[in-house]
């Protein structure tokens, strides 16, 4: 972050609590800048969520984002947003049945409005995006719905002059069984530092076998948050080597491969910053296609990461479809550590 912007920008901080704890804190007057919940819809102006079913005995959780005091909220097209002038959190919920557009047009409109909101707020750089699509693997009329989504998303990126390839933000795209197209995004005044996984082809360089437009995201992204803190945002990560799914049908092998990919991208990120991250000390969301697999997934994670690790204490397990029909599990994570980005 440049010295001038760093001096004036309020630090951004995130903490994970159960949803009940977050709501109780807000009721006592400690309302955050904004919040993203996992496992429950948001029910007020400052919190938004995704209503995927929580698995195992985990509770819905909420990531509370704390920023500057002078927070404004508003609407730009289909985007609802909150900003302190330096950081921007926005939300899109678009119901295909209500608007009568296919998913390509819908995702284009969503992202076109996202970029308009960012321009309005003076926060031109996307840092992290969360996408949730109903019936992600279903046929959308000659093309898989995820591929329709990718087509509309990338077109909006290109028209807005946003980084659709190198420099793209961290992101995930998961399938929910029903409901609206949900987009949640974090933007700021400085661009993130993209991180790729040397074991994988960058998603934006996938061959045309995966659709007419490639997915628009980096495997991870680093961002300075102010107050000497650096964030690592890890995109949804699964059992992909090169550009191909490996271990089809074997959830244990897929999870093991996913952990290798997570550790590899974290190692790549650690080369770009003096902050040093670890998988064990991150806040994760574990997306599980088949609910019956969840107990075994948690047990395998405990063995790999330690039952007492931050990952295991803070993780939430959600039922969701993964962007490829042969993938059974996906993990996203974020962490903050003291440090600065490398020159």
Report on the architecture of this protein.
- It comes from Variovorax humicola.
- With 343 residues, the protein is of the alpha+beta class.
- The protein is 26% helix and 31% strand.
- It contains 8 helices and 18 strands.
- Strand 14 and strand 15 (244-245) form a beta hairpin.
Tally of individual domains: 1
Write down the oligomeric state: single chain
* Uncertain residue segments: 1-7
The CATH H-level superfamily is: RutC-like
Strand order of the largest sheet: 5-6-7-10-8-9
Order of helices and strands: HEHEEEEEEHHEHEEEEEEEHEHHEE
Mean pLDDT, nearest integer? 93
Helical fraction equals 25-40%
Name of the CATH class: Alpha Beta
Tell how many strands the DSSP assignment holds: 18
Shape: globular
Beta strand %: 25-35%
Which terms summarize this structure?
343 residues; alpha+beta; 60s Ribosomal Protein L30, Chain: A; 6-stranded mixed sheet; disordered N terminus; FkbO_Hyg5-like_N; Chorismatase FkbO/Hyg5-like N-terminal domain-containing protein
């Amino acid at each position: 972050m440049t010295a001038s912007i760093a001096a004036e920008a309020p630090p951004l901080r995130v903490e994970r609590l159960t949803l009940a704890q977050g709501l109780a804190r807000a009721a006592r007057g400690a309302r955050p800048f904004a919040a993203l919940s996992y496992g429950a819809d948001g029910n007020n102006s400052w919190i938004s969520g995704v209503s995927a079913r929580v698995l195992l005995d985990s509770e819905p959780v909420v990531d509370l984002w704390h920023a500057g005091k002078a927070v404004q909220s508003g609407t730009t097209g289909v985007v609802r947003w909150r900003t302190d002038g330096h950081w921007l959190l926005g939300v899109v919920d678009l119901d295909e049945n209500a608007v009568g557009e296919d998913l390509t047009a819908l995702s284009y409109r969503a992202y076109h409005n996202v970029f308009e909101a960012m321009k309005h707020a003076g926060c031109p750089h996307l840092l992290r995006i969360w996408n949730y699509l109903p019936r992600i693997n279903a046929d959308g009329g000659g093309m898989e719905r995820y591929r329709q989504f990718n087509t509309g998303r990338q077109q909006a990126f290109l028209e807005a002059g946003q980084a659709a390839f190198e420099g793209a933000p961290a992101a995930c795209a998961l399938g929910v069984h029903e409901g609206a197209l949900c987009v949640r995004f974090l933007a700021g005044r400085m661009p993130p530092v993209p991180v790729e996984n040397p074991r994988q082809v960058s998603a934006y360089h996938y061959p045309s076998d995966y659709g007419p437009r490639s997915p628009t995201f980096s495997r991870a992204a680093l961002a300075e948050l102010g107050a000497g803190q650096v964030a690592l945002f890890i995109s949804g990560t699964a059992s992909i080597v090169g550009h191909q799914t490996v271990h089809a049908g074997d959830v244990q092998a897929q999870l093991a491969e996913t952990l290798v990919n997570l550790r590899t991208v974290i190692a790549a990120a650690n080369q770009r910053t003096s902050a040093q991250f670890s998988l064990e000390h991150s806040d994760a969301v574990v997306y599980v296609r088949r609910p019956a697999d969840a107990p075994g997934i948690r047990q395998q994670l405990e063995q790999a990461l330690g039952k007492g690790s931050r990952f295991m204490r803070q993780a939430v397990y959600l039922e969701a479809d993964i962007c490829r029909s042969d993938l059974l599990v996906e993990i996203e994570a974020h962490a903050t550590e003291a440090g600065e980005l490398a020159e």
